[in-house]
Amino acid sequence: MRSALRSQYFWGVVALVLLVGVNVVKDPSFVQITINDGNLYGSLIDILRASAPVLMIATGMTLVIATGGIDLSVGAVMCVAGAVSMEFLANVSDPGSLTSVLSALGLALGLSLVLGMVNGFFVSVLGLQPFITTLIMMLAGRGIAKVITAGQNTTATSAPFRWISNGYVLGFPVAFLIALVVVAALALVVRRTALGLMIESVGINPKASRMAGIRPRNILFTVYAVSGLLAGMAGVFTTANVMTVEVAKTGMNMELDAILAVVIGGTSLAGGKFSLGGSVIGALLIVTLDKTITFLSIPSAATPAFKAVVIVIICLLQSERVRALFTHRRPRPPAPPAQNPTQTLEEVVA
Amino acid sequence: MKPPAPVVEMTGISIEFPGVKALDDVALRLYPGEVHALMGENGAGKSTLIKALTGVYTVDAGTIVVDGQQRDLRGTADAQDAGIATVYQEVNLCTNLSIGENVMLGHEARGPLGVSWRRTHAQARAALARLGLDDLDTHAPLSSLSIALQQLVAISRAMVVDCKVLILDEPTSSLDAHEVANLFTVMRRLRDSGVAILFVSHFLDQVYEITDRLTVLRNGRLVSEHLTRDLSRGDLVSAMIGKDVATLTSLGSERAARVTDPGAVPVLEARGIGRKGSIHPSDVEVHAGEVVGFAGLLGSGRTELARLLYGADRPDTGEIRVDGRRTSFGSPVAAIAERVAFSTENRRDEGIVADLSVRENLVLAVQAKRGWMRPIPRKEQDELCARYIAELNIRPADAERPIKNLSGGNQQKVLLARWLATAPRLLILDEPTRGIDVGAKAEIQEAVVALAAEGMGVVFISSELDEVVRLSDTIVVLRDRREVETIVNGPTVTADTIVGIIAREGDAA
Amino acid sequence: MSTTLDVERPTRSPRLRPRLNLAALPTVAAVVILAIMLVYGELAYGKIFQLNTLSNLFISNSYLIILAVGLTFVILAGGIDLSVGAVVAFASVSGVMLVNAGVPSVLAMVAMIAIGAVFGLMSGVLVQYFDVQPFIATLAMMFLARGLASILSTAPERLADDSGFRTLSDEIKLIDGPKLNDLVITPNVVIALLVAGAGFVLLHRTRFGRTVYAIGGSEQSATLMGLPVARTKVWIYVVSGTCAGLAAVVYTSKLGIAQNITGTGWELDAIAATVIGGTLLTGGAGYVLGSVVGALVLGLMNVLITRDGSIPAEATTIITGVVLLAFVILQRAVTHARRRT
């Protein structure tokens, strides 16, 4: 029992169950699943479908945070992916053909990957601080999206593209299945190879990692590139859902959801050990939370504030000072003042 | 003539951290108008004692009396109020500000319109003049000065607050002979004006040149307090490392003199290898199956030299050859590729990856070498761990435990295992037995000898001279950041021989 | 006395060595850039070197000047504040709603400034006492403020045209030039210049200001030197937050409307203004007056882009981002080179 309590998933799953319970109290039909034409429908199914984009960016954010960095640009990259795919499909002669759809996908994912690699380059090679690099990308990225669509909220029609988000396979939403496969594949790569170990090592102690023969530069570049790619995937899901890209709104504040999912999942914002499974639970929790708020007819304007408060509380819980309160430990002798967190990796990566 | 009352009297000082008693009933007396040296090896407790005096640590037991008044020092501001000023090894000024600002930081002259810079700089100039630095432009940035001058600026800052006690923590580590001479002139001037100076340094020549009295600490305890002129160098070194001269003489070398094949190409050969500010150009040669020991006191440059051999730092001069081939190690990755491994002495910052398990720490270097795409199968990892846990007696024998929960000694063993697992051809061990219990020390020493017998080249660095003497085939003796002599070990070489070489009167630095 | 010390000192002949403060160089460069842009604009588009253009430059950017001054304090000490734009939104929506509910304008303004200060205090406490990294703490504050603003209202809140609030943006003609070419000033501009002046005094004429620079140079050294580091680190965020509140007052009085989406991206503009103005992003060097120049550079950039007409308005954020990136990379290259020597 105790090990179950300690498991970082435990509280996440408990919260998830509680949230669903709250909804059920309001209206038992919340958990009702109907089958129509061999496909499943219902609020729970909606949650699964809506979780696809969040799963993508949460996964990418987990890896970036594990190296001690941050990616504030995921929302903007989502928007760029949406913009480029919609523009392409709106202007191509046969948007419904498979080639068009694959091309649109390729463009969206390709551009997102490039943006991620740009972030990675600045952080790993030039040693710029992650927050400023991705902050600039966050705003410049949205600008790029606006330039692509010339400021318009481009709409396109393409049944196959739409299917990516709204279709069904084996009764389940395609989006969710794709997201699950991607996360599973990434988890496999990260945990079955030595990549996960190296990411954690670089996040915990870049100096020791370098002395042990790891190249922190390569690790950093990779995680930012992956984060960009996954954000592109998320953008495709979001845009395909409504077949419109809103350059001011698509992906807005999604970085908040991603960071929240990661911290709920138990990964520390300071970097180091990470849990992809935890981030999955965190992502599901956030989507359920959003759904609950709508379901209970609470104005959704309140959610960002609420999410911000949760992040602050979790940060407090993760801080040494509060931890010491709980364990009644004699506070350690004052260590040298914490490294300036805006410090770059210059000394390490050099 | 009866000496004046001490300006600082620390009695019965004890400070304990979880798991280790850093200071145990230590006493220190500082008299006005005196330069007092605080001596001791690594882990002796010097820096802890100083931090107690400067308010960084609070004492668990004991009293501190400053100028006749008992003080409870709970922060750096308290110590400053008590008249205690410190100049640290890294100078610890703000290089982004001007000289005058640094001197007066926190004590700027204020008028009705805020800080009066004219008066502030004037006061700064006056303070600098008292040290003989009257023609410095106080508006110039601090970064335009050499480290030596920055240090003097730091000292004049201490003078601004009219300190009674000046603590100089390793002030000469980055200075050349000329700059040291200037510093000593300033120190003498301050001493003559009644300031009590606490001088912490590893450089024996300097201690004998400038200090009037010294206190020796070892393992957190007070060993003795002497007038400098009453203690010979040999006795000082013995007091610091804990063996009396007689015992040292009896510890003869246990290695039969090794015969090197004259034509053998050394595994590693470094000629004239040096780095400005870190180590003077030195030569090192290691053959396969040879144990080369680096002997010298802390601060003599042992680690610095080793880091150059490994690629952790880049040398400014000299060349390195591996198996006769000229190479240069730009980074640890390059050295590891050449099968050179380095076990750092700074295991907390550069060694352990704290939150990872023992197993993950152990396999890290091997895994890094193989690349991320070829993970070591779990079975192989477990075998590796089991092997080294047994060989090095790592406790607790649980490979999944986070390494941060292990004692320092066991952490060191895991790090050693990390490097042994890479089957290097040259293994550089920096203080591998520091903080390890006696039994484990013997185990590691045996392991080192066995490795050499298998053909590995080993560089063994230790502050314990009897260890170095017992294990090495060749001993490189370092003092004051340079190699002073390389001797071949033999039955006639004892720890006393090394002590003699180190303590030998020579030019300072 | 001085003869006993025999050290080679670079300052032996002070007269030969000009008293060049290297840290001021980036700010001087910013002024030069501004000058070049003015000249270029005049040559390329005309009508730049005119009183009304210059007046508008100050009037349109007074809010940015105030934000940049506040942010300078934080960045100088090595921190960052990502919440300023969102705090402006929350403060302005609250303020307008208060005024529309009958609260006197002056009180509403005080409330807006206080809101900014409170958010700054929260950020400061999180950073200093709970060891939260500045960008996370202020990022959370950003979402919190933005969220609270959205809770209050998602529709634009309008101020009555005759409201006392709006007098701050009343134009005062200083020089009556031909046709519409007048040198005009508004109380907002005066406020902005006063804030810049106050910032200058705080940073260069008080011990608090020296402590800010010292922390930016080396927090460890500052602590060891006995400076009140903890207190100062909280205060800088309070300063930044207060400036955000003040910027909300200035902006709302000019626009007359407050909305929850106000201020999106302003943190990047403020950071850009500060960095362009010569403040090192890593802290320790920079001038408040430089941030003012940086704000004007950004404002002028917008004017030139609009005049040019060929660059779409959507591209402005990209350009600001690229410019900021260029400056950050330049700063990094210079610091790297200096560390090598």
Automatic annotation (TrEMBL), chain A:
User: What keywords tag this UniProt record?
Assistant: Cell membrane, Membrane, Transmembrane, Transmembrane helix
- MF term (GO), any: transmembrane transporter activity
Compartment(s) of residence: Cell membrane
Q: What is its main location?
A: membrane
Q: Which Pfam families match?
A: BPD_transp_2 (PF02653)
| Polar residues biased stretches | 340-350
Protein name, per record: ABC transporter permease
Species source reads Sanguibacter inulinus
Its taxonomic placement starts with: Bacteria, Bacillati, Actinomycetota, Actinomycetes, Micrococcales
